[in-house]
Amino acid sequence: MELSRTTFLSGVSALVAATAVPAAAEPLSDVDPVAEARGTSAQALAFLRAGNYRFVRTGPRPWPTPLPPPAAPTPLPRRPTDRTPQRPWAALLTCADTRVAPEFVFDAGFGDLFVCRAAGNIADNDVTGSIEYAVAEFHAPLVVVVGHSGCGACDAAIKTFDGKLFPPANILAVVRAIMPAVSTVPHDDSDRLRHVVEHNARLTAAALAAGPILKPAIVSGRLHVTWGYHELKSGVVTIR
Ligand SMILES: [Zn+2]
């Protein structure tokens, strides 16, 4: 059973209004998470790692996608249609960088990954709401924020922090969102950009995990939220 968008949104409103109630006792929706979840957090982590291994080592994945239990009753089509089920086993937040395309990097198929992308893998209200939607509506058991080597957005944040760059227009909002990570990495760090990228992904994951939908899902044991680092040179994504 899938909720309509209106039902989902009204459910979110009720959740937000009920923040005084112990969150773990509140159902996220009227969909049974055990029945609807595509798999466990551990299975989803294993699938991401296996998919990245295939991407790096052995080329494209066989078709159809091997699914974690409960398996889809019929193989998914190569090309999605309006009847293709939307049952992601992971929600990802990655940079908008052209080189990090998650479906390729994790060798995933249609219906597998719920992907949000923004420069610097930052989570503004819209992105946060999208990730929350993936967890509340589709019961994704895993959320990963993935930073990457050579991130231009993080590099711009560092240059702005150092007074060497003045981002125009709304680019400033992107840079500003990365500043908490920049400010905690020493100026003379020998691998400053990498550490800013990693810390930015870690902070973003922590912020998502503290939200009113993800937090009770984590407490109930059906969601894991973490972060990763994508090394472009090797293609390897290290998930923490
Ligand atoms: Zn980037």
Structure description:
The chain has 240 residues and is an alpha/beta fold. 42% of the residues lie in helices and 11% in strands. The chain has helices at residues 5-17, 33-36, 41-58, 102-105, 125-138, 152-161, 171-183, 192-209, 214-219; strands spanning 90-94, 113-117, 142-148, 224-230, 237-239. A five-stranded mixed β-sheet has the order 2-1-3-4-5, with helices on both faces. Strand 1, helix 4 and strand 2 (113-117) form a beta-alpha-beta unit. Helix 6 packs across helix 7 and helix 7 (171-183) crosses helix 8. The chain starts with a helix and ends with a strand. 36% of the residues are buried. The protein binds zinc ion. Zinc ion binds next to helix 6.
Explain briefly what this protein structure is.
With 240 residues, the chain is of the alpha/beta class. Helices cover 42% and strands 11% of the residues.
